[in-house]
Known about the structure:
With 230 residues, chain A is of the alpha/beta class. Chain A is built from 9 helices and 9 strands.
Amino acid sequence: MIVAEQKSLEEIKSLVGNAEKVLVVGCGTCVTVCFAGGAREAAIVSASLRMSSKLDGNPKEVTDVTVQRQCEWEYLDEIAAQVEAVDVVLSLGCGIGVQAIAEHFPNTWVVPGLNTTFLGLPTEQGTWVERCAACGDCLLGLTGGICPIARCSKSLLNGPCGGSIDGHCEIDDEIPCGWQLIYDRLNSKGKLDMLMDIQPPKNWSTSRDGGPRKIVREDLRLNEKEESGS
Amino acid sequence: MTEEKLQIVAYCCEYCAYAAADLAGGLRMQYPPEIRIVMLPCTGKMDILLALQALEEGADGVMVAG
């Protein structure tokens, strides 16, 4: 899932600025399950902004609504009337949701209520960890299902480095060494020989180095007739 | 704000705190009129939104008893 964290109320207030009517938009997918921007959080932020602005002597009209996914036009269509009726939209979606709202409602000023943090999973209640860097060229088949890009601090393809100390990373002894994890995993599967293959430098053009990425699936695109609905 | 005008919303569990308040009433015991009791089926039902709603509606404090 996309994991995010809520911004502080102070930062949210400064982003909302002098707007009198605010719509807090939650998202029902990733940020709901990481407890950052779902319906409940949208209601809490909404109430907090109302009370805080009242205490500041400039009460704002703050309402909230949550869509199933902020990152698809169809779900945003459902809130068009509410969006158009306010001065600012505070999106509690990830960065994609914020941009989708800005793109879908060009006349609306939208600000983020979250910091989108990483792609990861909850390892225990209340703890989320990064697992994928979305590099665009998955290497997990070489490493026993443990990502050296996301879980090695240096994103090494041939590790571990000299900074691996007792199974932990030199940058923080709370962080497991990604390559130690890979070694242990391959060892447990009797596949240590896989480490004898030296990996060449990675082609980063599939990652951010190649600029904004795009996928076009011709098999899924509508043809002209379908697009026009005839 | 004077102390006399404080309003405290008390969210009470039906099976213990609310029953205790009920019993106290039966025994003609007094508690401050500033406390408004809201019965919950269980304080596990308590949610930050309930507390925020009470505060937003003008309560000065929220008590959870269960």
